[in-house]
Hints:
Elements (H helix, E strand, L loop, with lengths): L2 H7 L8 H12 L2 E9 L20 E4 L2 E2 L5 E5 L12 E5 H8 L8 E4 L7 E4 H7 L5
Parallel strand pairs: 4-6
Antiparallel strand pairs: 1-2, 1-5, 3-4, 6-7
Helix pairs in contact: 1-2
Amino acid sequence: MNSELTELINIKRNDATKEDDIALIEELKNARLILPIEITSDIELDNAEEGDIIELDEGFRFKPIKIVDDKQRVCIPLYTDDSQVHGHTSAINIYAKDLARMIDDNPENIFGVVLNPFSKFNVELPMDTFLKIFEDEN
């Protein structure tokens, strides 16, 4: 999954050419990435016991897990493949363009997204930059 994108991410930023950067953005436009999530619900489960039947009329919601970078900025982690994911228990596969549509106005003041945050090389994009990549797609 995303082998070309992973290869482009793994180029040292000092060694990356303008063509590499353009190719990375083009790959990101169509990338299906792994997004760690937190599942939320209004359903009260504190008093539930084994064997209880729980009706899910309203269902569950999810929100992206957030991490803090070394400059104390809040980011959404995204992973190119399973081998990059570390320490998250729930995740979904999502196209980057669909995530951009979901974020729209950045109400939580998230700094940006970071691709493969725990790998030797990663790519951090400010939220405005990430959203601009997909402006023509919406």
